[in-house]
Amino acid sequence: MINKKLTSLFISIMIIAAIFLQISCKPTIQTDLTKENIIPKPVSVTATGDYFCLGEKASIYIQGETAELMQTGNYLAERLRPATGFPLEVRTTTEEPGKGNIFLTLSGADASVGDEGYILSVTKKLITISAKKPAGLFNGIQTLRQLFPASIDMSTKQDFDWHISGGTITDYPAYNYRGVMLDVTRHFFSVEDVKRYIDLVSAYKINYLHLHLSDDQGWRIEIKSWPNLAIYGGKTEVGGGVGGYYTQEQYADIVKYADSHFITVVPEIDMPGHTNAALASYAELNIKGKATDLYTGTEVGFSTLATKKEITYKFIEDVFGELASLTTGPYIHIGGDESHVTKKEDYIPFVERVQDIVIKLGKTPIGWDEISLGKLRPGAIAQYWSSAENANKAVAQGTKLLMSPAARAYIDMKYDSTTVIGYTWAGLIEVDKAYNWDPASLEQGIGKENIIGIEAALWSETITNMKEVEFLTFPRLPGLAEVGWTPSTLRNWDEYKMRLGNHAKRFKAQDINYYPSKLVPWVD
Ligand code: NGO
Fold this sequence. Notes:
- It is a single chain.
- The protein is built from 16 helices and 17 strands.
- By secondary structure, it is an alpha/beta fold.
- The protein has a domain at 23-171: Chitobiase, domain 2, CATH 3.30.379.
- The strands form three sheets. It has an eight-stranded parallel β-barrel with strand order 8-9-12-13-14-15-16-17, surrounded by six helices.
- α2 (67-84) links the parallel β2 and β3 (90-93).
- α2 (67-84) packs parallel to α3 (134-147) and α8 (310-325) packs parallel to α9 (344-360).
- The longest helix has 23 residues, at 2-24.
- The protein is elongated and about 100 Å long.
- It binds ligand NGO.
- Ligand NGO is lined by residues 300, 337-338, 368, 385, 410, 412, 423, 459, 461.
């Protein structure tokens, strides 16, 4: 009798538990995958109307055992664990896992998705991301994160139904280079700051981080063969603050962290202008052999290396030699902008020789658009920022361009006249202006075939801390990331601004200090 009662009680509990589970996995919001607010907008999305529910028992399965795959699986687990509170173990497998799991695989994706593309399929049973390369899986993971409720980005456990809409996303980038530049010279930013920046920008599929490591106001990377550069030249910054520099160990740590987010670091040592910090550190680099004073102002174009002295090229070989050995990516940026006090007849052979130094080290030189005044070496890249004439000169030499037109992509510009920080020399850049342009039709004579990609540039004369970095970066960077990722035929400001409005919740979950532009219908 007692046994019978116990059995029926057990059955009732099981039924209630089953109903509860069912209810707790019922989506409370829409389940149409095509209506999700993904940024950058994917190439193709089809919906089934179904949904997947992530439960406590879910694991992340990776097919294959390479360290990079494992790292990618762990990355996803680490993103999902805090808010879900689920253990989300990462396991390897040789075949498709059972119901309720996430599956990352390097087989099954069509070759047309390329090195960075992915296919994300969500069924009631399984979430599958397939790609040709781990970078593609990582990009698929960024999309997946955006399919969960925004609370997924919170750092503490949230009570939520972690369901996502069913369907298939096939996606790959329009441009291979989607970068952001951070100027760590005018004001110095710590290793932790740079890592947070990497965290935030990688969520929008940015894959290059250009670090502007030297300028008039500071030298920010330890060079063992020329130690004074960092010790003395890194002492201060704009406004006279304490400045700082990265030791080589710290810098290597940044590069490693970026690599683990599929972001390639591009180091820049600006020359022959923008070199006062070096000229203050070593007298012999000056034309007159006398060291300059450290500089904490914001003027540009007043300094130059002694382009006719051999010691200058020894210095460059040493600096780039050390930097190349710390660089896992293909590029070294040689600057070359605004060398107003270098004579043109000195500037041209200088830039040509410096390109050769970089190439000899096995790296590819990039320089600001002025470098196209000289002969550009095969494979070199010119970064268009202000002169369409220079950009066209580069194209005429068969050189590819990295597009950073100041009036669109300089995210150190103010949003509007009331923005407290930022510059105005390239105009005010509201969120729509940063979004509403097509790199391939911006300038006459420059088409998609001439362009490797785009880069947002954040110069730091007017910003001193991460809150300010975030304010100028968000929400313009997600838009610029979409300019680089999504085919222009699929982009439209009126539709984009609705998607962007839905990212406010995500910004808040990550404590991002963003600019709440009036042009965007924010959904809190
Ligand atoms: C210019 C200049 C930088 C300034 C920046 C400020 C380039 C390539 N050189 O861009 O030194 O910091 O504008 O917006």
